[in-house]
Amino acid sequence: MDATHTRHRINTLLQHKQDADVKQAFQSCASRYDAVIKEDVPESLQALRLGNYKFAEGGTTDAAFEAKSCEEEFRRCKSPDMNRVVLCMTSPSWPRPLFRQS
Q1: Which of 19, 30, 61, 102 would you label with 77, given CA atoms 20 to 30 Å apart?
Q2: Entry pTM
Q3: Which runs of consecutive H residues, i.e. helices, occur in the chain?
Q4: Does the residue 99 lie in any domain?
């Protein structure tokens, strides 16, 4: 599961939500995941290809920030489980062998 899957799930859930607070939270999360998918992930992958591991790590940090910000949008309600997956995968405790230099 990844950010694209999470974004798709957010869109699906957004179509069925009537509560204004929940709908606003989903819309904000959708925008945040667009940034992850269109900017953070491609920039990180490019940095990995070029061997710029610190810049790649910065991209995953940005993705984690967006996932955490999405989680915070749901203070008054429950966030989608997929957001927690992305948040966990981008946390500093997640094993990141891709960022180790050989």
Answers
A1: 61
A2: 0.65
A3: 3-16, 20-35, 41-50, 53-73, 81-89
A4: no
Q: Is residue 79 part of a domain?
A: yes
Asked, for residue 98, whether it belongs to a domain, the answer is: no
CB 70 within 8 A of CB 40: no
If one counts the domains in the chain, the total is 1
Characterise 51 by phi-psi region: left (phi > 0), alpha (psi -120 to 50), beta (else). Answer: left
pLDDT tens by residue, 40-59: 989 999 999 999 999 999 98
Which domain range does residue 64 map to?
3-92
DSSP 29-54: HHHHHHHIIIIIHHHHHHHHHHT-HH
Distance of alpha carbon 68 from alpha carbon 66, whole angstroms: 5
